[in-house]
Design a protein that fits this description.
Shape: globular
Helix content: 25-40%
Distance between the termini: 33 Å
Strand order of the largest sheet: 1-5-6-4-2-3
Strand content: 15-25%
Length: 210
């Protein structure tokens, strides 16, 4: 499954929220099928989220280049918007997670959060017509792919923001991307994810009280 929303779509944040919810349901159902009971199913009338196994969000990138800063900016915004929730978030402006660290983070997530769905966020390059698109997919993220790097995959759900047009060296990704584009994308992604995470955790609280 794949969903795309342009930053100039006024309902982009709502689209990100609804799409992320659908993808989380699909991933958790798939994990449940593989390991019965390891991941709480996100089906209506069932516990939505195990409070001891919250979703994990990984925001990849560096604040040293505007085009690569989508992840850290989104992470910082999301951290603020989900204060009080039992959600694990890795990657922010204060503590960025770069593509070079994916190998170690992947092993850490497997050991520490092995049964939880992982949402991975990163900047991407694309065709000229894709500039400004936010793409959500139920496939793992491939960090560094836009810079022709092979660093392996991470996550169960990927969220990519197309910040620059493809080129031989992808020079534009790091040097000519406008901060307004990256900041707007980060706001939309963080708003959408914050909404779905608050809803999931509130349902968990209601379920636990019932």
């Amino acid at each position: 499954m794949e969903y795309s929303f342009h930053i100039y779509n006024k309902l982009a944040a709502d689209g990100v929220s609804m799409s992320a919810d659908k993808l989380l349901r699909a991933v958790c159902i798939r994990k449940t099928a593989k390991t019965k009971g390891a991941c709480t199913s996100l089906i209506e009338k069932s516990p939505v989220l195990n409070k001891n196994e919250p979703p994990v969000v990984v925001c990849i990138g560096s604040d040293l280049a505007i085009g690569d800063s989508l992840g850290p900016i989104t992470g910082s915004m999301l951290k603020y918007k989900t204060q009080g929730l039992n959600v694990f978030l890795y990657g922010s402006l204060a503590s960025p997670v770069t593509a070079k660290e994916i190998k170690y983070l992947r092993a850490f997530l497997k050991e520490t959060h092995k049964n939880r769905p992982v949402i991975a966020i990163d900047a991407a390059v694309g065709d000229h017509g894709d500039l400004g698109l936010i793409k959500l997919s139920d496939k793992p993220l491939m960090p560094g792919a836009g810079a022709n790097k092979q660093l392996g995959e991470i996550g169960d759900i990927s969220i990519m923001g197309v910040v620059a047009e493809k080129s031989v060296s992808n020079y534009g990704l790091f040097n000519t991307t406008r901060l307004n584009l990256v900041y707007t994308m980060a706001e939309i992604i963080s708003d959408g994810l914050a909404a779905v995470l608050w809803e999931l955790c509130n349902k968990t609280a209601d379920t636990n009280q019932a």
